[in-house]
Amino acid sequence: xxxxxxxxxxxxxxxxxxxxxxxxxxxxxxxxxxxxxxxxxxxxxxxxxxxxxxxxxxxxxxxxxxxxxxxxxxxxxxxxxxxxxxxxxxxxxxxxxxxxxxxxxxxxxxxxxxxxxxxxxxxxxxxxxxxxxxxxxxxxxxxxxxxxxxxxxx
Length: 154
Description:
This protein is α+β, with helices and mostly antiparallel strands. It has helices at 20-32, 44-54, 97-106, 125-133; strands at 3-4, 11-14, 59-64, 68-76, 82-88, 114-119, 137-140, 143-148. The chain is 28% helix and 29% strand.
């Protein structure tokens, strides 16, 4: 199912088996730039195992323009809550795609009245600024939370 986004022929879709290499590459790109908590690059064989095990449990959405430009992943955290991870390819950063991805994907989550947690490295100032601009609140050191009630984020 493709959900068309209003801006520049962008669409959002659930990840599938054809996305395994893309997710692997963009994850490792962010490890290299020290944007994620993990410090070690992922091996492709380990990623394949993780992908097969977690594909059905996690909500992973791919943002596509002409090519795949990023992903957003929601991992079940508590009964009705999720941890969020967003990654955009370097050439598409700072163009608003992260916000589009976040806004549209929240509307595709079937739960109602849930919280989204963003755990951010102390040194990742860009992510902190991003989540604050998306109405997340700092609740503890490096933990940002959004209470979502199926309404639009402005």
